[in-house]
Design brief:
Distance between the termini of chain A: 36 Å
Largest sheet of chain A: 7 strands, mixed
Structural class of chain B: mainly beta
Mean pLDDT of chain B: 94
Oligomer: heterodimer
Low-confidence stretches of chain B: none
Structural class of chain A: mainly beta
Distance between the termini of chain B: 40 Å
Number of helices of chain B: 0
Order of helices and strands of chain A: EEEEEEEEEEE
Radius of gyration of chain A: 13 Å
Number of strands of chain A: 11
Low-confidence stretches of chain A: none
Radius of gyration of chain B: 13 Å
Shape of chain B: globular
Strand content of chain B: over 45%
Largest interface: A-B, 22 and 21 residues
Chain lengths: 112, 110
């Protein structure tokens, strides 16, 4: 069964450093998403991406965040200057259309 | 914004027991989704509901889309240890981004 692949599975970074989280969506999917889950809390929407541009972003997705689809397969989330409160699981998801989402296994980001 | 509240927050049950959890919304959803999240993993879709009143089963799981379109429940029959995890309801808002519920943590004891 097709999968959404995320790397790395765990990233530890110092406060103020830049991190890039990588995702390979399912190949024929057109809609891409990043979600975040702070430990013990619910999954929250960050950003959606379609046709090479951001469709929607949440209040969490401030100027420190950016997304990119640098080639035909990767979809990345960059946090320019990490803060302690950015520590969370970050999930990438993709869909062909509508709500048929497939989620990746996530990247656990720990900011120290 | 739209919010989804789940109850109970957590459940501790014995293997073989049936489980029921529900999800209520402050506003109408046109689709209800139920996900399971294992520790350290992403959410995995269990059941999708598309019509008010719809009752759908997937093995030992049964979910219903409430008539008012503001609630849904998920039942698990004859629970087994691998049912342990966090169960989330979710629904798409008017821009198709998913709104997730607060989650129900299920613990099953042998």
């Amino acid at each position: 069964e097709p999968e959404v692949t995320q790397t790395p599975s765990h990233q530890v970074t110092q406060m103020g450093q830049e991190v890039i989280l990588r995702c390979v969506p399912i190949s024929n999917h057109l809609y891409f998403y990043w979600y975040r889950q702070i430990l013990g809390q619910k999954v929250e929407f960050l950003v959606s991406f379609y046709n090479n541009e951001i469709s929607e972003k949440s209040e969490i997705f401030d100027d420190q965040f950016s997304v990119e689809r640098p080639d035909g397969s990767n979809f990345t989330l960059k946090i320019r200057s990490t803060k302690l409160e950015d520590s969370a699981m970050y999930f990438c998801a993709s869909s062909a259309e509508g709500v048929g989402y497939t989620f990746g296994s996530g990247t656990r980001l720990t900011v120290v | 914004g739209q919010q989804l509240n789940q109850s109970p927050q957590s459940m501790f049950i014995q293997e073989g027991e049936d489980v029921s959890m529900n999800c209520t919304s402050s506003s109408i959803f046109n689709t209800w989704l139920w996900y399971k999240q294992d520790p350290g993993e992403g959410p995995v879709l269990l059941i999708a509901l598309y019509k008010a009143g719809e009752l759908t089963s997937n093995g030992r799981l049964t979910a219903q889309f409430g008539i008012t379109r503001k609630d849904s429940f998920l039942n698990i029959s004859a629970s087994i240890p691998s049912d342990v995890g966090i169960y989330f309801c979710a629904g798409p808002d008017n821009t198709d981004k998913l709104i997730f519920g607060t989650g129900t943590r299920l613990q099953v004891f042998p």
